[in-house]
Structure formats: structure tokens, C-alpha cells
Specification:
The chain is α/β, with parallel strands linked by helices. The protein folds into three domains: 10-159, 3-Layer(aba) Sandwich (Rossmann fold); 180-408, pyruvate-formate lyase- activating enzyme; 414-469, Beta Barrel (OB fold (Dihydrolipoamide Acetyltransferase, E2P)), CATH 2.40.50. It has 13 helices and 19 strands. The strands form five sheets. The chain has a six-stranded parallel sheet with strand order 2-1-3-4-5-6, sandwiched between helices. Strands 15-16-17-19-18 form a five-stranded mixed beta barrel. The chain has a three-stranded parallel sheet with strand order 7-10-11, sandwiched between helices. Strand 3 (73-78), helix 3 (83-102) and strand 4 (107-112) form a beta-alpha-beta unit.
């Protein structure tokens, strides 16, 4: 089925801005400043969405709090990738009964991927009367309109109808911190991996125009951000829906050409679309971090085919080798699902052997979580949770061993790092990241936050490096 790319008209965003002004007049009429809380679950794209929610709320006159008992509006931005995340959300939403009892005028909104699933929206409607507003990712651009409707009508509002999504430019953004920034370059996914619910809740792939991405990137650099991450469910397929001849590697080079001292990161890449052109561009662009997150998910060709991943073990190994050929200092990380329906002992052993061969710098490992409506949910699965936990523990042990070995190789080296925050612990009171995204703890003046510095690595463990300023 052909998807027709949809763009929200600028006048529609201006109408939302006018509504923000109307809400501001209403909620600040008594002279007091109202407070809002935005609670975010899930991936970096959800974090970026929450920055837009906070942007709208700031335009409505709200300040921000992390205490639900202080908040006039609570927005819970949800994730649907795994069951555990949904259970956490539902538990925390249920607990908001206490804050709403203490503050009866409090408005509770639940948004994001979880509620884009019809059965979850229905569950909230029936079982969570504390919730006043429900909307999916496709309706985020009209959050002011939906919130005003709740305020004026004093009735619950549900807006999570199925659609393929759109591109909306001009939504205000309020970011946390002044060092790192998320920059969404596209939305949605066309891959339909059999275990994944994302295409059903985020819609089809929609790329932002290169000019819009570059304008936002220039503004981030002007504001002093030093670590900019380009976001998409599959950044490697950027631009295919635009027809303008600009692919992701081209966009990467355009951002790299913006004057300034900053790092470019990106996620997530799909192996089926990771090209030699991308690796060459990463190597040639001096601002591009030599970090590639390339989810393999399994080392078994049979399982990869059942997952609808559209590549083989052999292709993945060739890509990893080629990327390291272009960037010998590459930090390569991955995602792996353990216990996909029907995965055998032999197939899991193939995953272990692939990980040994590639030697990932870090692995993000998950036990398969059944998602309603996905093809994998109906696949036969004779293996027990105990079997899967045993495999998960074996993979985690391997991951920790390799990571520890990789980190020990850094000891004695001097690296350029970006100081990005405080740890709250002594003696290493500052946290920083290498070009490849490795975490480095060090001691120094908090005034260094936001600066690039040289650090000599003196120690390490499985999870972090420790260094001293040179």
C-alpha cells in the first residue's frame, strides 16, 4: 500500500500557538505560576517528544517540577517496546490517584506509543479514571488544543486514532541541559520486524526536509550545544520519501559543514541499509563521532529471517569489518534479543559466537517481549522463561567480559572528552564522554561542563573509564 507523505500546515501550528496564549491567560489570571511535570519512558525519540511537550507547556505559562503533588498538569509519555515498560507506566499512572486526591483540579495526560495501541487506550479508559487526556504520537503537534478541550469541557478526551503520521515543523522545544541535544531527522518505520510494535504506533517513515534539519542544527550550535544526536527509527533510510536525492550520508556531511566545535552522533542504524558510503562519510567528517550503534538482534540466519531483518549473519559481519576498516578506532555497539520464539540452543550459540567474533564495545540485551498485533506474537514458542533467562545471563556475562577487556585497553591513553555533567560523587565529581561515547569519570571544576578536555585514562571497570585532566 502506497503511503502519502503528510505535512502539517504552518497555519495549524500557529493556531496551536494561539491556543497556548489563551491557556496562558487562563492559568495565570490569579498571578500565580502553574507547574507541570513531564514523565518520560522509553527511547531517545520519546525524550525528544517530551522536549516538545515541555516547549508547549512553557508557552502556556507553566513552570516545571518533578513532584507530582506540586503539578497542575502531569504528562506521562509512554513506551510500548516491552511489556515491562508498560507495566511500570500503568503502576505509576495508578499511583497518581494520590496526587489528584490532594489536588482535585490536577489534569493527568497519558501520551506516546503505549496508548497508540487500541487495547491499551481502552484499558486506560476503563480502568484508570484518574487520566483526563490520552493522545498518541501522531497528535502531539496539537497538544495545546487537546489540553484546552479538557480544561473547557471538564470531560475526558481520547485522541489515539490510527493514522500513518505526519511531519510538523515549528513546535517549540524546551531542552534539558545545555551540552547535549536530540535532533529528530525523521519519524516512523517501514521495516516491520516481526517482534516490533514501532511501525504500528509510530507510523510510516517521514523524513524532515534537509533545510529544516540544518536550520535546527545551526541554532543548536549557536546556542552552544556540543553533542548533537540525529534521531530516527532507522536513520539510514532518511530521505527516501523526499525524492530530493539527499540520503543520510549526505545529510551527515551537511551538518558536519556547519561551523563550530561540536560532535555529531546518530541513532539508530539498520544493518540492511548501512552502506559503505555512510562509513566513508563518518571517517571523512571530523565532527562525526566514531560510534556506530548497529543492532544485530541475533547471530542465527534462521532467526534473522523469522524476525524479518532482511540481512544475514555474513552480511552483518562484513559490514562490521568494513566499518572498522574505515574507522580503526570505531566504537561498535548493538542490540540483541534473547529468546525470540522458537530460538534453539544451537541458534543462541550462533549469537554468542557472533558476539565473540565482532567483540562489541557494548551490548544492550533484552529477553523477547510479546507485543500484541505483531507476527511474532502468534509464533510457536516451546521454550520456558527459565531457558531464556539462562541464555540472557550467559550473554550478559560475555558482554561484561568483553566490555571490561575493551576498557582496560584504554588505560594509559590520553583521550579528548566532552565534560557533560556532575556525578554527585567524590573524588570523580565530573562525567564525560569520549568521541566513541565511552563514559569517563574524572575530578575537576564544574565550570568545565560543556568543554572538550584531554584526559589520561588511569583505571577502568566493566561500565566506565576513570581519568585525570592532562
Amino acid at each position: 500500500m502506497k503511503y502519502e507523505r503528510r505535512v502539517i500546515a504552518p497555519e495549524e501550528i500557529r493556531r496551536q500557538e494561539r491556543i497556548c496564549g489563551e491557556i496562558l491567560d487562563m492559568v495565570t489570571a490569579d498571578g500565580a505560576r502553574p507547574l507541570a511535570m513531564v514523565d518520560t519512558y522509553g527511547c531517545q525519540q520519546n525524550e525528544a517528544d517530551s522536549e516538545k511537550l515541555r516547549g508547549y507547556l512553557a508557552a502556556m505559562g507553566y513552570g516545571f517540577t518533578q513532584d507530582e503533588f506540586e503539578a497542575d498538569v502531569v504528562v506521562v509519555n509512554t513506551c510500548a517496546v516491552r511489556e515491562h515498560a508498560e507495566m511500570r507506566v500503568l503502576g505509576n499512572v495508578g499511583a497518581l490517584n494520590h496526587s489528584k486526591k490532594a489536588r482535585p483540579s490536577q489534569i493527568v495526560a497519558v501520551c506516546g506509543c503505549m496508548v497508540q495501541q487500541e487495547h491499551m487506550a481502552e484499558k486506560i479508559k476503563k480502568s484508570y479514571p484518574v487520566v483526563d487526556l490520552v493522545f498518541g504520537p501522531h497528535e502531539l503537534w496539537r497538544f495545546p488544543e487537546l489540553l484546552q478541550r479538557v480544561m473547557q469541557r471538564h470531560k475526558r478526551v481520547f485522541a489515539a486514532e490510527k493514522n500513518e503520521g505526519a511531519v510538523a515543523e515549528g513546535i517549540p522545544v524546551r531542552r534539558d541541559g545545555k551540552v547535549k541535544a536530540w535532533l529528530s531527522i525523521m519519524y516512523g518505520c517501514n521495516n516491520f520486524c516481526t517482534y516490533c510494535v514501532v511501525p504500528y504506533v509510530r507510523g510510516r517513515e517521514r523524513s524532515r526536509e534537509p533545510e529544516a534539519v540544518l536550520a535546527e542544527a545551526r541554532e543548536l550550535v549557536r546556542q552552544g550545544y556540543k553533542d548533537i544526536t540525529l534521531l530516527g527509527q532507522n536513520v539510514n533510510s532518511y530521505g527516501r520519501d523526499l525524492g530530493g536525492g539527499v540520503d543520510f550520508a549526505d545529510l551527515l556531511r551537511m551538518v558536519n559543514d556547519i561551523p563550530g566545535d561540536f560532535l555529531i552522533r546518530f541513532m539508530t542504524s539498520h544493518p540492511k541499509d548501512a552502506t559503505e558510503k555512510l562509513f566513508r562519510t563518518m571517517a571523512e567528517c571530523e565532527k562525526c563521532a566514531h560510534h556506530l550503534h548497529l543492532p544485530v538482534q541475533s547471530g542465527s540466519d534462521r532467526v534473522l529471517k523469522a524476525m524479518n531483518r532482511s540481512y544475514t549473519r555474513e552480511k552483518y559481519l562484513a559490514q562490521a569489518a568494513l566499518a572498522r576498516q574505515y574507522m580503526p578506532d570505531l566504537v561498535l555497539t548493538t542490540d540483541i534479543i534473547v529468546g525470540f520464539p522458537g530460538e534453539t540452543e544451537e541458534e543462541f550459540a550462533e549469537t554468542l559466537s557472533l558476539c565473540e567474533q565482532v567483540c562489541f564495545d557494548a551490548m544492550f540485551t533484552f529477553i523477547y517481549s510479546k507485543r500484541v498485533g505483531t507476527p511474532a506474537a502468534s509464533m510457536p514458542d516451546p521454550y520456558t522463561r527459565a531457558d531464556k533467562q539462562r541464555h540472557f545471563d550467559a550473554l550478559t556475562e560475555l558482554s561484561n567480559r568483553i566490555s571490561g577487556e575493551k576498557h582496560r585497553e584504554y588505560e594509559g591513553k590520553t583521550l579528548r572528552v566532552l565534560v557533560d555533567g556532575e556525578t554527585g560523587r567524590e573524588p570523580c565529581n565530573l562525567s564525560s564522554r569520549t568521541n566513541g561515547g565511552r563514559l569517563v569519570h574524572l575530578q575537576g571544576d564544574p565550570a568545565l561542563i560543556g568543554s572538550f578536555v584531554d584526559v589520561k585514562i588511569t583505571a577502568s571497570n566493566t561500565w566506565a573509564l576513570y581519568g585525570e585532566l592532562v
